[in-house]
Structures are given as C-alpha cells and as structure tokens.
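Figure 2 data, in text form.
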Amino acid sequence: MKISIAKTYASASKTREHFRFSNILASCVITLAFGLSFLACRGGEDEPNVPDSYCAYALDSVFVSNGDVYCVGSIAPIDPSDGHPSPNGAVAALWKNGSMEFMHDIPTSSMSSKMSGLFCANGDVYAVGEEWSRYSDVHRTILWKNGVPQYITHESGQYFSPASLFVSGSDVYVVGVVPAGPNNITACPALWKNGECRLLNDGKHDAYPFSVFVSGDDVYVAGVEIEERIIDDHIDARRYGVIWKNGVAQRLSEAGRESVAVSVYVSGDDVYVAGSMVGNKGDDVDAVLWKNGSQQLLERGDRSEGAGASSVFVSGNDVYAAGQVYEYFGIGNDHPAIWKNGIKQALEVRPPKAQ
C-alpha cells in the first residue's frame, strides 16, 4: 500500500486550503497553539453571537492581543427547511471576545465571503479573506484593517487566493496563490507586501504557501512544491515541503521523501517548521518538526494511521507543535495532538460530562 500526500488546495468559492494524507483530511490548521474550526447553530455562553437568521459556520483563525481573543471566519444563513447553515451566502465575520465586531458588507445576494487569516499589531486588527460570486467568475481578495476593506490583486489582474498574513512594523505581508501558466491552471505561490505582489516561483509547476513569518529583514514562507512526471501513461505527482527565505526556496525533505510544510515560526536565529513527511517505508506519514532544516520526528505513522503537525509556536525555551493523528480507513481513533519539546502532551478530546 502506498500512502501519498495529495493536495486539495481550494478553488475560489471553497474553504481554506488544507492537505489530505491518504483519504483523511489533516485539518488542524492552528494559529497560536490550537486549531479552531467548528459549526455552531445554537446560542451558548462559549459560542460567538451571530444575527438571528445566521449561524457561525466556520472559524479559521484566532489571535490573542492584550488579553482580547479575536476570531475570524464566516457566518451562513440558516436554511428554514432544516435549520442547518447554507454555505451559499456565507458572510465573512470577525469576533472579539465572543461578540461579533463586524460582518463584511457584500454587494449582492449572489456573493459569498470569508475571512481566513488574522493578525493584531500596533493596536490594529488585520484580516485577510475573499469574496466571490456563485454565478460568475468574479473573485476578489480582501485585506481588512479595523474593518475597512482593501482589495488585493496581482499585476496580471488575476485574483489572489490568500492563505496567511503577518504584520511587521508598518508592513503587511500576505501569502497565497495566483493562477499562472497556460490557461491559468497552475497555482503559483505569491507574497503580497504593501500593495506589491511578488511571485515565489516561475509558475511552471504548482506550489502552495501556507504560512508567513517575518523576523527583522527576513521573510519566511512555508509551503509545498509539486513535481509531476509521466509514469506508465499516468501522472505521478510528488510533493516536497519547502521554506522560501526572501524568495529563495529550500526543500526540507531528505532523500526525496514526500513532505509538506504547513507552519513556520522564527525565534532568534532558529527557524522552526511544522509539517508531515512520508516515512522511511513509504507506507506511513509522520508528524515532523524541522529546526534550521534538521528534522525531528514527533509522531511516527504506520500502515493503519498517520500523523501531521500543522502549527508551531515558541515561548521562551519551549517549542510547541500541534496537529492530528488519524486513521487511514476510519475515524474512530482520530484525535488532535500537541507536542511540547517533542513530547506528546495529554489533551482532553471529549467534553467533560455534565454534572
């Protein structure tokens, strides 16, 4: 059995990009130390408030600043026929300490929108996301600063599908992809800074950035490059985790093993990257953490289950990574995971029983 790392980078009207390992979605994309993605249609003390005709549809990012907890994502209209949310007509929204700060004002009822990235700096709240039409090719990328939208484009006029953002001083960085190549079917990684969009490769093969971090004058982007070749009349796609430092790519895989780099964090002179890699036997996927290019195994997969790290954070001398352990052929034992200095920590995965 061969286990591959298959891309599911989203199209214009779909949710934020993640990766599949075999047939299980490693969907713990996490800001700070834990991921946050849920569906909530009933009020509760711990759930964000939303307008009566909508429900919280998905939260994609969280950021804590000066004791305040900010979340971004989208809300969706409730279908009166079944009481469930409808992704058609979803609206980008931002919450602060559980209360909705604002909704994106979309121009027509045929449009949908979402926020996918969040950063707080210098007393300002930045978010990045998209709006798109369900009935046409209209697709726009938006950077919000304190609720005020600014539209982002590439010089070619193509839309810019965002994945992550970072603010350093007065500079705002966003990473994502723009269509490139013949018929615009190639995903080209791009870094947008203060109105200028810079491509990170030549657009000849697909590549996807997932995370950006700025340290001093250096800009680090974590993602994946995809190489395709023809073998026995079919396309064999191989994926390699990569760090772009100031636009120069460095692959993290060793001995040609497939991998994906999902999150990057820089502390002093050390660069940490969280992700996953196909194991030595080629039939397992391991959760890994790279430090300055050297690999540390967090969790070894096997023929029945795999693991992936999707976020890394450094606090003092401690290095935290978060991710997921999942089954290839079921979901009974899937569970989130967090590692501190390479050691897996106890994590409650079920809510406590009511007293």
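Caption note: DSSP finds no helices and 29 strands in the chain.
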